[in-house]
Design a protein that fits this description.
Number of strands: 9
Shape: globular
Strand order of the largest sheet: 2-3-6-7-9
Largest sheet: 5 strands, mixed, barrel
Order of helices and strands: EHEHEEEHEHEHEEH
Radius of gyration: 18 Å
Structural class: alpha/beta
Mean pLDDT: 90
Distance between the termini: 45 Å
Length: 203
């Protein structure tokens, strides 16, 4: 297991070097995205003016404050609480997000499934897991909200965060078919089958 520091955007070789169990710290940029953003981008054909190629997205609808524009808040938003939402329900968008927008990394909680694993293997991507309930800590890793697009969907806008040492995050899925979440599911299923078998024997 290794620790990787990635100055975003990152190239495919850097992402394919990640393996499940490794940890990652992100620097420079991170994009916030959520259900409504993805639905509008891929089901309704909207395009963003923001360049996501080589970048990481985090599944979030942040709690932000409206403030006067300044060097610390160039688009008039200040981060208040940047939490992470469960990723699995956005599974169907992973391949399109990578193919059309060039996204390399997804940051979220709870993991994703086989369609995401397939997209990561084919296109060179990875899933970085963050502990649920760590929103207060995550927010300290965000320096400012640098830009925002699709703000009619607020708070499920497309956010561009300037970050400093965002992590460490755990590589939960890699581009080589590895998935800590699938391993846990297999382990749980095996234990369940063993328990059921022992109960059947005891009858």
């Amino acid at each position: 297991m290794a620790h990787h520091v990635l100055d975003m955007p990152a190239g495919e070789p850097e992402i394919r070097a990640l393996r499940i169990g490794d940890t990652v710290t992100l620097r420079r940029w991170l994009f916030g995205i959520r259900d409504a953003t993805l639905i509008h981008m891929f089901d309704r054909g909207r395009r963003t003016r923001l360049d996501l190629a080589g970048h990481a997205v985090i599944h979030t609808a942040p709690n932000v404050h409206r403030v006067a524009p300044s060097p610390e808040a160039p688009v008039g938003y200040a981060p208040f609480c940047i939490g992470t939402t469960t990723s699995m329900r956005m599974e169907r968008f992973t391949d399109a997000l990578m193919a059309r927008e060039g996204v390399r990394l997804i940051v979220g909680k709870g993991g994703m499934g086989p369609a995401t694993s397939k997209a990561f293997a084919e296109r060179g991507g990875a899933y970085l897991a963050i502990v649920g309930g760590a929103a207060a800590l995550e927010t300290t890793w965000i320096e400012r909200i640098e830009d925002v697009d699709m703000d009619d969907l607020h708070p499920e806008s497309l956010w561009r965060f300037a970050i400093r040492d965002f992590g460490p995050l755990l590589v939960g899925m890699d581009s080589h078919g590895g998935s800590l979440f699938a391993e846990v599911q297999r382990d749980v299923a095996s234990r369940r089958d063993a328990v059921l078998a022992s109960l059947e024997e005891a009858r």
